[in-house]
Amino acid sequence: MFFAPVLLAMSSLLDPQPVSIRVEVFAADRPVEGATVTVAGMPHVTSAEGVVVTTVSSGTVRIEVRHDGYLTVTKDVAVTTAEQRVVVTLAPEPIHEEEITVSATRTDKRLDDQPMRVEVLGREEIEEKMLMTPGDIVMMLNEMGGMRVQSTSPSLGAASVRVQGMRGRYTRFLSDGLPIFGESPGGLGLLQIPPMDLGQVEVIKGVASALYGAGAMGGVIDLVSRRPGVEPQVEVLLNTSTRGGRDGVLWYSTPLTPTWGLTFLAGGHGQNKTDVDDDGWADLPHYARGVFRPRVFWDDGKGRSFFGTVGLTTESREGGTTGEGAANETTLARVEALDTLRIDGGFVARTLVAGRYVLTARGAASGQSHDHQFGDVLERDRHNTLFGEAALRGSAGRHTWVAGAAIEHHAYTARDVPRFDYNFTIPGVFLQDDMELKRWWSGSASARVDWHSEYGWFMSPRISSLMRGGGWTGRVSFGTGFFGPSALTEETEAAGLTNLRVRRPLEAERG
Predict the structure, then answer these.
(1) CA distances from 198 to 99, 140, 349, 413 (A)
(2) Are 435 and 444 in contact (CB under 8 A)?
(3) 462 and 425 Cβ atoms separated by less than 8 Å
(4) Are 106 and 211 in contact (CB under 8 A)?
(5) SS3 category, 123
């Protein structure tokens, strides 16, 4: 009986004592109601005043505070025998929203706000397709909805892109809004564009002559280049295939100053002439191609910017019958070959006018020469394209408008078949107005007037409407357009012009 009080006193000194702890949770100097506060493994919920009061044993206690929209806070608190007060301040959880801005429609709006339907292929998807075909953009375009790549020259492997079933010559190909690939980049042009330096691909399906005039009757494909980052970056891709294909691509990016940046693309691509099924016909043509393209960027962060690019592409391509096929009496020996040299350049400059209007100037020039061998027939030609455009963009209330003028010149010189030479000059003016009619309804109206030096005057209107509500989005558009034809088609690219006879004058096509 004498030792009992002593043992009880010692036990009270060794065992931790229960202590009251008060946790107060704040965010932006305001109490947070409904936050989950876990104290020593036991969860509690804060009151309207952002407070949780509980008891714990003295010692070190872990406190964790969670709430939707805020970063989780965890801290270890040394609890004494006195009443403990702990203040926790929550920080908002960072929100990562990917906003895609579309430039093909001239208003530089977000993709979700465009009344006109624009389909965008992002960088991640481009990289996925690039690993399969590093030397061209054919597979990348072929897997987009409503588009199909069709072979146009079995001997050389040329292909064109059909948008919603329209022939490839009706689709306008642009690079950063510039026609640096020439008038008709289908066919072999698609096989000479490496995707390594593309940031995104924007596609307008259907008649787009109201935006880009002749040649856009089937749609527009705008290849937007990658921009340099804040740190130097180097990417190298090496590829080889079991069918004798070889690719080597280098992309380099670096900031030159806080406002200037540079990217550079160099690629070497080749493939062996291969007869897969041993029938005397080369299923895969031989080619050897080199591509060089530097780009410069300037942006002062105050609404003024400049982009410039030059490019050089050289390629030698050969297909047709193989040696075994030429020796076979049942096979008609035919070798088709094509040597290509293309030099191009372009720029896009933007500045602010009166502090509220955006003035954009674009210019491009390209020259392309071909030496095309069809068996014993040689056809040599040259394509030249010049382009210039100035546009002014502004906003007033619920309207965002664009007005501008453009001029294009296309020249084709066939040295061996001169009767198909042409010189087309096409000046035009255009106007576009995007309207926010209601919170859930917006529209776009545009019109363009062009004068074609060969086919005369054309008026190309287009209207589009966007309606949103309840998680649904609906778009509807209507437009008309035109195409100035020439003797150059998918068929003549495969068969040549020597045996072509035009029985009556060509007429403009409307859609």
Answers:
(1) 18, 11, 19, 31
(2) yes
(3) no
(4) yes
(5) helix
Asked if 178 and 346 touch (Cβ cutoff 8 Å), the reply is yes
Looking at the DSSP bridge assignments, the partners of residue 432 are: 402, 446
Average pLDDT over residues 103-125: 81
Give the number of other CB atoms < 10 A from CB of residue 394: 15
Confidence of residue 128 (pLDDT cuts 50, 70, 90): confident
- Half-sphere exposure of residue 427: CA atoms within 13 angstroms, side-chain side: 1
Torsion of CA 431, 436, 438, 443, to 10 degrees: 40
| 3-class SS string, 216-235 | CCCEEEEEEECCCCCCCEEE
Q: Which residues contact 310 (CB under 8 A, 6 or more apart)?
A: 293, 294, 343, 344, 345
Q: What is the pLDDT of residues 177-192, one digit of tens each?
A: 999 887 766 566 677 7
Distance CA 266, CA 298 (A): 22
Task: Point out which residues pair with 426 in neighbouring strands.
Answer: 408
Q: Tokens standing for 313?
A: 């592409």
Instruction: Tell me how far apart the alpha carbons of residues 138 and 190 are, in angstroms, rounded to a whole number.
Output: 6
| CB distance 341 to 314 below 8 Å | yes
Strands 73-79 and 59-66: antiparallel
Measured CA to CA, the distance from residue 258 to residue 49 in angstroms comes to: 48
- Least confidently predicted of 100-109, 274-283, 429-438: 100-109
Length of the chain, please?
511
Contacts of 278 (CB under 8 A, 6+ apart): 324
> Which of 450, 403, 26 lies closest to 214, judged by CA?
450
* Integer angstrom CA distances of residue 27 from 23, 33, 38, 87, 91: 14, 10, 18, 11, 7
Q: Which residues, in sequence order, are CB contacts of 398 under 8 Å at separation 6+? A: 435, 436, 437
Question: What residues contact 214, with CB distance under 8 A and at least 6 apart?
Answer: 408, 426, 450, 452, 458, 482, 483, 484
From CA 243, how far away is CA 241, in angstroms rounded?
A: 5
Q: What is the pLDDT of residues 425-443, one digit of tens each?
A: 999 999 999 998 888 899 9
| Alpha carbon distance, N-terminus to C-terminus of the chain | 110
Rounded to an integer, the average pLDDT of 97-120 is: 75
User: CA-CA distance, 461 to 205, in Å (whole number)?
Assistant: 15
Instruction: Give phi and psi for 380, each to the nearest 5.
Output: -110, 135
Q: What is the 3-state secondary structure (H, E, C) of 283-331?
A: CECEEEEEEEEEEEEEECCCCCEEEEEEEEEEEEEEEEECHHHHHCCCC
Distance between CA atoms of 338 and 321, rounded to whole angstroms? 15
Question: Phi then psi for 188, rounded to 5 degrees?
Answer: -75, -20
CB-CB contact of 387 with 363 (8 Å): yes
Taking the C-alpha atoms of residue 459 and residue 461, their distance in angstroms, rounded to an integer, is 7
Compute the half-sphere exposure of residue 267: CA atoms within 13 Å on the CB side of its CA.
31
